[in-house]
Design goal:
about 350 residues, alpha/beta, Rossmann fold, seven-stranded mixed beta sheet, five-stranded mixed beta sheet, 12 helices, 14 strands, about 40% helix, about 20% strand
Length: about 350
Amino acid sequence: MSERVLMKGNEALAEAAIAAGCRHFFGYPITPQTEVAAYMAKRMPKVNGVYLQAESEVASINMVLGAAAAGVRVMTSTSSPGVSLMAEGISYIAGSDLPMLIVNVQRGGPGLGGIQPSQADYFQATKSTGHGDFHMIVLAPSTVQEMVDLVAGAFELGDRYRMPTMVLSDGMLGQMMEPVVLPEPIGDELPEKPWAACGHGGNREHNVVNSLYIQPHDLEDLVVERYKRYDEIKKKEQRAEEYLTEDAEIIVVAYGASSRVSRSAVNKAREEGIKAGLIRPITLWPFPENAIGKAADSEKTKKFLTVEMSMGQMVEDVRLAVNGRKPVGFYGRTGGVIPTPGEVYDQIVRLSGGA
């Protein structure tokens, strides 16, 4: 096993992308993700890769589109306002059935907001990244090690299903330093992409990558086919971590940085004799409705509490998954404020009927 090294989240994620075979990065600096781009600027020339700082987020996502169409592993990274600028290009990528990775290290908003951590981009990532009928696979790490681990998985899922993927991080995870074990480089073991527009030498039919379909029935057929693929993803790719849920009466649902805070609160509640547990969504799309539905069906579960660094976004998906079987409460901080374990513990005590 490789030895553990101390790395900042943003830099560890970038190194993991290189190990996963990414050799093309296009982006634009914005706090708190700039270390991803800065690290790639240093490392890409050393691995025969391409790094290019575009003139804007709009330009960078369209460079990503071109590289993805050529069949290479490509990524970009940004923070919340940058994703808004990339929205049209992401929609074109989804409409062209192209795999790529976008990393969003979230900051407070709306507008320029602030540079502190946030989770207020959940709706944007899972429901409205761009115009039209499409989804992205969205993965939510909670540790620097998981940031490393999920990057390779994001590239693999994107290639398997021919669609964009997102690693939804935040300023807390991107800036913190933790020991990590970096993966071994995969070398040239990348999947074949017979659909790519990368030259054919007369050995195959000419490939065209396109997202424009003038005839409505043609476009409808393509979108319907795409949604059959999405249904397959929902069945096969839901992921969540369950912690102390076997006998839990109160189940906290939290992802990313909020789940770290919530785990500490759950441990404190257990010390005080309150049967609390945690479900941590790892895939935000597809949302792990099966794990939450199973908990909602349990006679032991009395209530749910959703904790987010927002005014309440994922809580809507939790309520849909619970489907009225149990009450679902919410606690959130916003504007870049991180909830404390004590605050979440107080909410658990309140739900348990304590003072």
